[in-house]
Protein 1
Amino acid sequence: MADPVNLAAGAGALAPGAGAMMSAMSAFNKSMGAETMSEVTRSADRMVASAKSGGFQVTKEAADPIIKVLDNFIERIGGMRFDLRVFDQAPSLGGHDYGKRVALHMQEAASGEGSARSAVLSLLTVLEKSREALLRASNQYDEQEESARDVFRGMGE
């Protein structure tokens, strides 16, 4: 069976601007594909392992501004998670077979492996691991964990 998006593109059936969206998605996939994000995540894992073993250290004063930026992005991506739920359902493109196939393809492109959603969630993981590595490298990790424990202890009382 032919790919519905390729069929539509070949027939000129995509709505105005859809071609640009497809081009952007293709470029995004090439620059931030699943392989690239996997390698970035592995690098973050190696950075955490290095910090745990004392492989690199950084002063608290140097780490804090970077950690603050990472926290900001982690919070912003966390807020986007709700908005990304829109991709949990295929768009309504009619009850006919072609509309259903295109809708399914669009949903898979938006949420599947290599999608922008997947890349954003992978980026969140990388940011969290990078934050952990900096906290460990600046010897603040234990302080942060103890502070979090205190908060949870206070909630249980």
Note: Residues 1-25 have pLDDT under 50 and may be disordered.
Protein 2
Amino acid sequence: MAVRRGGAGKPARRGSAAPEKGEIYLEYSVLSGQMRVAAIDAESGVEVVVFGPANVSQDDIGQLAVRKLKRRLAASADDRSPPPDPTRKPDGSRFA
């Protein structure tokens, strides 16, 4: 079963072609006594997966998957910062 959550606390829009910023798709699967939840950021396509017992509530494990996805997106945003300029000294001047 797949669930579509809206961004910024809004309900998901049904039938829309373009995803909203912050929209997350959740996919639930039960595999041999375990629940697998995939959380996918609709804008970037980044996906994370969490597993838990099959008897845990979908809300709880879904929230865990969303938190993991948000951490992954924050970490990749930090990685996109430009690397330091090797020709600059710590005081801001340049090497000759």
Note: The chain has a mean pLDDT of 80.
Protein 3
Amino acid sequence: MVSVYGVKTVKALSDMLGTTVSVISNRVARNTIPYDLIVKCSIDTGAKLNWLLNGEGEPNIDGIKTEKNQLNYQAKH
């Protein structure tokens, strides 16, 4: 989401998403997927949900270069 919005800090990202730094920091610390924020980012920018969620495919945004990154997410049982 940082690259899609073109921001460099968590504060700037939180401002773009209309949330607080603590909300984003908590999601990162808990390693949880912020589905609500990802959907908002997709609506705001046109980025494909599949790319935002797992880095697969193309972002569908001009000027964004993609790399295949490994995401480590483990669902809690």
Note: The chain has five helices and no strands.
